[in-house]
Amino acid sequence: MQTLIWNTLAPEQQRDLLARPALANADSLESTVRGIISEVRSRGDAALRELSARFERAPRDTLRVSAAEFDAAEARLGDDIKAAIRQAIGNIRAFHAAQAQPVLRLETQPGVVCELRTQPIARVGLYVPGGSAPLPSTVMMLAIPAAIAGCREVVLCTPSPASDEILFAARACGVEKVFAIGGAQAIAAMAYGSESIPKVDKIFGPGNSYVTEAKRQVSQDVRGAAIDMPAGPSEVLVIADETANPAFVAADLLSQAEHGADSQVVLVTDSPALADGVQDELARQLAALDRRDIATAALGGSLVLLCRDLDEACAISNAYAPEHLIVQTRAPRALLDKLENAGSIFLGPWTPESVGDYASGTNHTLPTYGYARTCSSLGLADYQRRYTVQELSAEGLKGLGPVVERIAEAEGLGAHKNAVTLRLAVLK
Amino acid sequence: MQTLIWNTLAPEQQRDLLARPALANADSLESTVRGIISEVRSRGDAALRELSARFERAPRDTLRVSAAEFDAAEARLGDDIKAAIRQAIGNIRAFHAAQAQPVLRLETQPGVVCELRTQPIARVGLYVPGGSAPLPSTVMMLAIPAAIAGCREVVLCTPSPASDEILFAARACGVEKVFAIGGAQAIAAMAYGSESIPKVDKIFGPGNSYVTEAKRQVSQDVRGAAIDMPAGPSEVLVIADETANPAFVAADLLSQAEHGADSQVVLVTDSPALADGVQDELARQLAALDRRDIATAALGGSLVLLCRDLDEACAISNAYAPEHLIVQTRAPRALLDKLENAGSIFLGPWTPESVGDYASGTNHTLPTYGYARTCSSLGLADYQRRYTVQELSAEGLKGLGPVVERIAEAEGLGAHKNAVTLRLAVLK
């Protein structure tokens, strides 16, 4: 990791250091994905079967995973992983169920009742990547809030073969409609529907650049589907002082770095000694990692920023807007009020990022690429829509009507005024 | 308005009737707007001044509205409109302040604390259209939740000249940075910043097709800005039975129709007599309207759907997903549990849409064009970001760590596991 002393840098250098790298290859990606979506829209399952034959590790004609396949997956899994998944589900369910909102009802003036209510989004699609490892955690993070919200239709797509862990987690989270197909074609199928895959209203989940681009494209079409959030490579920023354990910090940096060569890893510290200690630990721990090539590549693009004090560290983090923010300082909670624009914050030495990735209860679907400035951590609210209801009594309209008439007049909207005036005339 | 009997139609006819019309002219619009954004990004205020000279009714060199201009606007306005705006602000503020969420803190298992917190989005931009009438109501709807959320920077753009009502409402809602510039160039300026206009993180507000397209484009660029929601023409659906007052229903349909020739207006009723009565009232009320040409054009594209019963009426509304839904039936609240996909619902004879447009307390910024299936009514939450915090004690990690290790192993992510393992080793 490259080490820089923050306040020796010019403002433009500081800004460029914290900017995310441009995502490569955008034009050809866009047209390739557009072609796939168009094929799936026009030819449905026939196109999906052809794409399965071309791209899947285990191509299949019947895309939907059968009950027998679920049963077989469950039978093959050991009790320990099943128990671990069940415990994670319990925690995630508890934290997401606690996010439910009662109806907000307020009488803003006599006889004028306003309500804010929530409803589940009717049909949701979940995408779970395949790739180098099965990701049952993604199933849990996407499916549990859908079940709590009460979404009527929940569809899950994942590349073929769907791993045993994914099928077990899906069933444990109440998802029965699983289709073993991945890539942009899976996103297209969920956005527009095919003979076998139901159309959904909103699509959730991470994926490779094709999946991300497909989500972007269908979200731009009103006949397509909404999406959870825009996506970029995963990232972590660690704020640490001289009290931090260098081995812990290095382990946390590496658990981000092993995600992919494009993972972003930033350490911000006011302690040169801690920075040195972390570099030593990185070298030591790297050697023992299965995914050391990926992690090494990611560390090549990563940064150690030496800052003056923890206030400056917070300012750097706020400017970067990290997906994951780990705070290992003498009094981590004391920094909370100074921290902005982070997707999820991990406080103290006993809170590695991996607890939130899997099992503490928080959602691991978080805004990346600087989107944490405006986007939220995924939660129950993303599976719901908020809408308002209002009801005026006759007395309520008598009280409020003249105000509405006066503003409608100022806006030159005579019919808006008249809708009140003719009612008030009846009430006289 | 064209009248159709719903259950005599084929399913495809039903679907097509409820689909929104395609928005015209998309390609040339896209490139025109792309050009404007590029000009503003590269030349800043110089480009804005040129565009002001070309497009504004009152071109100006100094874009920011001065304190003296605010004072003069306030001095010119009558006390009655000021009082009306103040009363509306009071109701809107009360309903949006009630939406604030306390920190959610849950110990999901011993020593594992998860929190859901909210923070204001730091910098927001509000767009208030000019056009045929000043819209102080839009100022209130966009600025009040920004103030309650505590957004650090609030910028408002509106075409020049900014009306007295808009300036009065802006100041009354705590907005001091008002710039008299409209169109795609205003959106570009807020998304990227110029010498005089600060860059913001998220842009809110309605506008013409140039504004809407500019918002779409800047929201696709991570260096641009997020936006409130996608937009289309405004629309209302009224569910009425034989107990409804035809004059009230007609007045509500007209207050939607006067917005623009592309406004969508739908009446769904199980009573042919009510449908006839409404048609008669429409003809009568139209004659007296200032904006009757606009309203007549909108009604030309609008529908009366005769249905079998109120259950079918609810199903039609749910399929249409209206921005505004007015229910004038014998027992309107009894339908609430059957109604989905509406932006805002107005119950009963004394609740015309215009009370929500201006003053009841609910927000009038609502999802149009079918987006109500997944998008929410604008509220305090749109000016905030939700993020999670977690903190484990040593005991907490001892309890949860093995679960995390087991799932990390299943996912083949050794560094994720190691971040737990080396901590547990210290705790032994």
UniProtKB/TrEMBL annotation, chains A, B:
PANTHER family: HISTIDINE BIOSYNTHESIS TRIFUNCTIONAL PROTEIN (PTHR21256:SF2), HISTIDINOL DEHYDROGENASE HDH (PTHR21256). It catalyses: L-histidinol + 2 NAD(+) + H2O = L-histidine + 2 NADH + 3 H(+). One of its GO terms (molecular function) is zinc ion binding. The keyword Oxidoreductase applies. Binds 1 zinc ion per subunit. Its cofactor is Zn(2+). CDD domains: Histidinol_dh. One of its GO terms (cellular component) is cytosol. NAD(+) binds at Y127, Q185, N208. The active site is at E323 (proton acceptor), H324 (proton acceptor). PROSITE patterns: HISOL_DEHYDROGENASE. Catalyzes the sequential NAD-dependent oxidations of L-histidinol to L-histidinaldehyde and then to L-histidine. Substrate binds at S234, Q256, H259, H324, D357, E411, H416. Zn(2+) binds at Q256, H259, D357, H416. HAMAP family: HisD (MF_01024). It comes from the Bacteria. This is Histidinol dehydrogenase. It comes from Aeromonas simiae. Belongs to the histidinol dehydrogenase family. It is an enzyme of class 1 (oxidoreductase). InterPro entries: Ald_DH/histidinol_DH, Histidinol_DH_CS, Histidinol_DH_monofunct, Hstdl_DH. Keywords: Amino-acid biosynthesis, Histidine biosynthesis, Metal-binding, NAD, Oxidoreductase, Zinc. The lineage of its organism: Bacteria, Pseudomonadati, Pseudomonadota, Gammaproteobacteria, Aeromonadales. Its EC number is 1.1.1.23.
